[in-house]
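Thread: Newbie trying to understand structure tokens

Hi all, I'm a second-year student working on a class project, and my supervisor (Dr. K.) asked me to get a predicted structure for one chain before our next meeting. I've only ever worked with sequences, so writing a 3D structure as a token string is new to me. If someone could post the tokens and maybe explain what I'm looking at, I'd be very grateful. Here's the chain:
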Amino acid sequence: MDAFRHLQRARELLQRGRPELAESALSDAIDAAVQAEDLVLLTQARMALGDLLVEQHREEEAVAFLQAVVRTEIASGVVDNEVKSAARLLRRIRGIPE
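---
Reply by user tm_fold:
Sure, no problem. This is what the structure looks like when written as tokens:
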């Protein structure tokens, strides 16, 4: 299964209230995106997993994923929203006011 399909599956699992399975699907999406060398899907999967971990009050685990998102630069700006969202979550985790 490719990274995009893993991401879709994770979203469906979250909608059905299955965060533990969604987490696994997001990890699979990250692995598939790395293998495919797809930086856009990798960034989206990292952001989704970081967000999920924050929602589960697992901030320490989320930080590495969110930091990787913040460090992502793609000239076309296709992941700018993810980068901004990750930066906001990192500030919130660190207790920095918006």
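A couple of things are worth pointing out once you decode it. The longest helix spans residues 19-36. The chain has a mean pLDDT of 96. Feel free to ask follow-ups in this thread.
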